Amino acid sequence: MARSRGVWILAALIAAAQRVEHYEMAGYGCVRTYAELMGEKQAAKVLQKTLDEEGATDKRLTGLAERINVTAKTPTKSKAAGKNGRATRSKTMTSRIMEAVGMES
Ligand SMILES: [Fe+2]
């Protein structure tokens, strides 16, 4: 059984956010290097701090993506038949994440 559309949307949003972070890291890295080449030590230091923050955000998004992507490809438990033939319903990590971001499944 395929996952709900919401989980795939969440996975796509995380991927888009990671693309933004990588774009930002490329920009800050270049400008930091220019600052270093021009002897602007204070500016280079601030830009490196920003670059580090972008990297940390990317790592958090990677951790989230690793969980949501696995969840997205896993069959939905709530629609699978249990031993008695009736559908079982359990609160999955996906449900909790979707609730946290305001996207009920
Ligand atoms: Fe960012």
Would you kindly provide a written description of the structure presented here, covering whatever features stand out?
With 105 residues, the chain is mainly α. It has one domain (2-75). Helix content is 70%, strand content 0%. The protein is built from 3 helices and no strands. The chain has helices at 5-37, 41-73, 93-100. Helix 1 packs antiparallel against helix 2 (41-73). The longest helix has 33 residues, at 5-37. It is rod-shaped and about 75 Å long. Fe (ii) ion is lined by residues 21, 24, 54, 57. Residues 21, 24, 54, 57 line the site of fe (ii) ion.
Principal-axes shape call = rod-shaped
Q: What is the helix content?
A: over 70%
Hetero groups: fe (ii) ion
Fraction in beta strands: under 5%
- Uncertain segments are none
User: In terms of structural class, how would the helical and strand content be classed?
Assistant: mainly alpha
Number of strands: 0
Note the topology.
Elements lengths: L4 H33 L3 H33 L19 H8 L5
Condensed summary:
The chain has 105 residues and is mostly helical. Helix content is 70%, strand content 0%.
Task: Give me some keywords for this one.
mainly alpha, 105 residues, rod-shaped, binds fe (ii) ion
